[in-house]
What does this fold into?
Amino acid sequence: MNPGDLVEINTEAGRGYVLVTHLHPAYPEALRVYSGLHVARPAKLAEATAAPFSIVLFPLSAAMLDGELAGEVVDRLPVPAAERAYPLFRTPIRDRNGDAIYWWLWDGDAITPAEEGRDIAHLPVREVVGVETLLGLLAGRS
It folds into this structure.
């Protein structure tokens, strides 16, 4: 997989689409996961990429090679200009009960503490998601 690859993923409920946005030497692919399944491939693939999306880290190449997911690259698109830099992720630091007590921010290279009071709820969490989570996001479940 390469940045810009639009991948169609076949599920029992329809076809979903993800865009590979970034590669990292220590993490799996960063993906834009478009919400919503399609019965058939849209005549204009831009329709699939107009849907709301989530940013995740997921081993797409490995999952397809292992047969965990069925899919194929169906187009090559430019990564949107606003997202050419590696995505900014948030990482919780948890107490003994598992509650997040503060957050760090990771830009693919450096990790820095989040500023007190900064709104980071919209940022994706730095975690590698599994197949079920990816399929749920494609189906529109967060």
In short: The chain has a mean pLDDT of 94.
